[in-house]
């Protein structure tokens, strides 16, 4: 029973850790700091809510399979315990995979944009502090192949660029 409690706690910890990954544009990854980024001006054409599918790294299935196998093997005698252990491992793996997938699922927005040169682009990113609506002036910041959308800074009239 003690092993079952330890493995259950491990499964919960794995699910919690896998939920830490995010595509939130307000969170900048450490390796993206001090990198030169490309910045493009754009206008929001439309915004729609989407759900980003959760990950399936296999960690949830493995942890669930171990927990289910151990729990099932404690049922009945030796032969029944072996059969129940295999069935418990399969069921645990399926449940662990489903927990991981739902725990890493993320609510996001798909933003359709019009660049100043007339091109259109779409970016999907996690919901953030900024909410966008059609007509909003935004900038696209691309670093290391990843693009995020944020509000354009307000321009100040009469300011000039430094030489």
Automatic annotation (TrEMBL):
TM region positions: none
Residues covered by the Glycine zipper 2TM domain: 59-100
Annotated keywords: Signal
Superkingdom of origin: Bacteria
First and last residue of the signal peptide: 1-15
UniProt-listed InterPro entries: Gly_zipper_2TM_dom
Pfam families, per database record: Rick_17kDa_Anti
Name recorded for this polypeptide: Glycine zipper 2TM domain-containing protein
């Amino acid at each position: 029973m003690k092993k079952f409690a330890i493995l259950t706690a491990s499964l919960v910890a794995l699910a919690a850790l896998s939920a830490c990954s995010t595509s939130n544009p307000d969170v900048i990854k450490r390796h993206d700091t001090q990198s030169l980024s490309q910045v493009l001006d754009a206008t929001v054409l439309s915004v729609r809510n989407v759900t980003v599918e959760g990950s399936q790294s296999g960690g949830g299935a493995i942890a669930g399979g171990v927990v289910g196998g151990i729990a099932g093997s404690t049922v009945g005698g030796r032969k029944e315990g072996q059969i129940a252990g295999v069935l418990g491992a399969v069921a645990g793996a399926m449940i662990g995979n489903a927990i991981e997938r739902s725990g890493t699922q993320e609510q996001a927005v798909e933003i359709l944009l019009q660049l100043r040169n007339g091109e259109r682009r779409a970016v999907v990113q996690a919901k953030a502090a900024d909410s966008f609506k059609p007509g909003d002036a935004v900038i696209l910041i691309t670093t290391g192949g990843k693009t995020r959308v944020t509000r354009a800074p307000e321009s100040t009239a009469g300011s000039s660029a430094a030489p």
